[in-house]
Design a protein that fits this description.
There is one protein chain. It is built from 7 helices and 10 strands. By secondary structure, the chain is α/β, with parallel strands linked by helices. It has a single domain, classed as Rossmann fold, CATH 3.40.50.880. The protein is globular and about 45 Å long. One of its GO terms (cellular component) is cytosol. It holds the Pfam family GATase. One of its GO terms (molecular function) is transferase activity.
Length: 228
């Protein structure tokens, strides 16, 4: 069973998700990096894929400079939906999926770069957190989707068919968060983000984050991905 992953080259770490894939017999991860100039061979990419996972990005879904890369990504999700291949879309990937499903893209009224608790409709399969949020665009919920979690600022999780869109980052390990903070430290501190506290919490709750990610993925694989 194979996993096709769509990601920025700089942000392609699957972190805690690797353990989830292994637990469910998913292996052979194929990585497709965004931003290629030549057209993606969508049918070939999805051949043999049992799951599509899309990750966060350095870009905004409202960025005109990355329109072509997003159009290529749209075609991947459209074809996956047509074939009935489950999709787990995270952060930017979730916002792109919303576009594919007909929901407009919108800037968030305020950024969420913090550990957040979410209001969850089912804490047995989707724990309340804390989860790592890092976004400045809204996760817009398409018609026909079921909203599963949100914060006071924005929707956080919805299900649509065999797709699960997740605004927060269940995959990010403490080490990966440290790397991302180092890449963006000046911009984060200009926004008033306490970068030391952000990374300290990641280390403090590392095992809890691992367990919550497993819980979320187990629920997704047994429910949404299975068409239930």
């Amino acid at each position: 069973m194979a996993v096709l992953t769509v990601a920025d080259e700089e942000l392609d770490a699957l972190g805690y998700l690797i353990e989830c894939f292994e637990a469910h017999g998913l292996g052979g991860v194929r990585m497709c990096h965004r931003g290629r100039s030549r057209p993606w061979p969508v049918r070939e990419m999805l051949k043999g894929a049992d799951l599509v996972v899309s990750l966060g990005s350095l870009s905004s879904v409202r960025d005109e400079a990355t329109d072509e890369a997003r159009r290529q990504e749209h075609r991947v999700y459209e074809r996956a939906i047509e074939l009935g291949v489950p999709i787990l879309a995270i952060c930017y990937g979730a916002q792109v999926l919303s576009q594919v499903l007909g929901a407009p893209s919108r800037e968030s009224p305020s950024s969420e770069i913090a550990w957040v608790e979410v209001d969850s409709v089912n804490t047995a399969t989707l724990p309340t957190g804390p989860w790592l949020d890092w976004h400045e665009d809204l996760l817009t919920v398409p018609v026909g989707a079921t909203l599963l979690a949100r914060t006071s600022v924005a929707p956080q999780v919805y299900a649509h068919g065999r797709c699960l869109a997740v605004q927060f980052h269940p995959e990010v390990t403490p080490e990966e968060l440290e790397r991302r903070v180092a890449m963006n430290r000046d911009a984060l501190e200009q926004q008033g983000v306490d970068t030391e506290a952000l990374t300290a919490q990641a280390h403090r709750q590392g095992e809890r984050s691992r367990a919550m990610t497993r819980q979320l993925f187990d629920g997704f694989w047994a429910g949404v991905a299975a068409g239930r």
